[in-house]
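Mods, move this if it's the wrong board.
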Amino acid sequence: MLGWVITCHDDRAQALLDRLEKKFGPPPQCQAVSFWRGLSSNMLSRMMCDALHQTDSGEGVIFLTDSAGDAPYRVAALMSHKHSHCEVISGINYPLIEMMLPMRETLSSAAFRDTIVEHGFPDVSSLWHQQQKNPPFVLLHDLYAN
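Not the wrong board. Structure tokens:
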């Protein structure tokens, strides 16, 4: 089963998790991390690292964030490069995560990423999809050659 780390500004992450718990009971391998005004990126990183390790069973973890480019997204992006089968999703909303809840048990992390982006488009994207739009810079020639 894919782990979920829901991370959003203020109390939104906990509110989303509370709604899921109210309807379905506590979802296994799921943690909420709130990014409060004034919280340092270092502390957010530590909280998200703890959540990653608590939710990962070895099949992968999905970071569900509220908006691309903000601190929760950036910290998740950095973590995803260090852990295999981690995906970072931005633009989440409650109806979408409720719909995706049962798919955690059957889909790989990459298939989950593609499915949630497909269902949530255009508001929902992923780090992987953004990287496909802006591939890494490649130097085509040696600047120091004579």
